[in-house]
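Could someone model iron/sulfur cluster with this protein?
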Amino acid sequence: MNGERLDPWGTIEIKDYDRLRRVFGIRPFSEVIPRMRELGLPLSLHMRRNIIFGHRDFDKVILEGLARGEKIAILTGFMPSGRFHFGHKLTVDQLIYFQRELGAKVFVALADGEAFAVRRLPRREIIRLGIEEYVANMIALGLDPDKTDFYFQTNRGTPYYRLIQLFSGKVTMAELEAIYGDVTPGKIVAALTQAADILHPQLEEYGGYKRVVVPVGADQDPHLRLTRDLADRLHDIAGLERPASTYHKLIRGLDGGKMSSSRPDYTIFLTDPPEKAVWKLKRALTGGRATAEEQRRLGGVPEKCTVYDLYLYHLVPDDNELLRIYRDCRSGTMLCGECKTMGAEKLKAFLEKHQEKLEEAKEVAWSIVEPPRF
Ligand code: SF4
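Reply:
Sure, complex below.
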């Protein structure tokens, strides 16, 4: 690994995704696209646009499962410690694609134990955030609550906790430190609990889904490597198989840094009042030039532009329209002021439509997710 370490709890920026793939042995996602076409599977927006850039065993686990008509599942987890933003939406869009287009069962873990141990939030607030921020926004985005298993980790039940206990006997401190650096009791429990999240759908009690994929940002790969090793070590005892994973590029915050709940001025939340979100967008870092004259002459740089990121990841689903914006920016035909006005309209329309569905989605969320008793 050349001494490099990815830190899922850290704030590193990952700029060179190709280099990252080579260093950590993640395969390029482009290599599985021909097989998807052969199987007649549609590509998601994020697959088409190379936002999903890598995978481990997606072909062996998921595509071969689909080719044989076997059931598949997709799992993700969220730590309910802040507000739901466009970075979260990127993952939820992938869940919706797998649910609608590939018929996958969806599992969503709410990492309330981790929020308590690592972020030190009050339990009641963690539970409220889990249901009203995370589950409600996911339902309002279009995730079908009837085909999704949302759960709080601390409520999950005996077979799930049996896995965590067994994992603790199959991993050493040296291994955990090699993956995570400094570890605390809370981080160790969180790491083993996440492994149980990923692997427990394979148990009969939770549906017996042997073919599971986990969509993650590249910074989460250490969890995947640990989980794959644990699956091997418990293969004979619990019949666990290695999961597949896909890796997506992280959307940047509006200043070019990390998009995160802890940086609210640079992060657009799906519950932001539309005017507030537009205010943030108008101040966003662009790839524009110092003067209008220079931009007309040299063109803008969409690759550096956080407004373009919003188009690419979320606000412009039509590939032809996106291409037109890209060309108009590069050629200097469109300047940043005009482009931001267009972005503001798209953002406002998206948020208004989304927020119309949110109150009803909150009611559904409280009715389908069992909150932990304490
Ligand atoms: S024209 Fe649009 S896409 Fe290009 S740099 Fe300016 S804001 Fe970004």
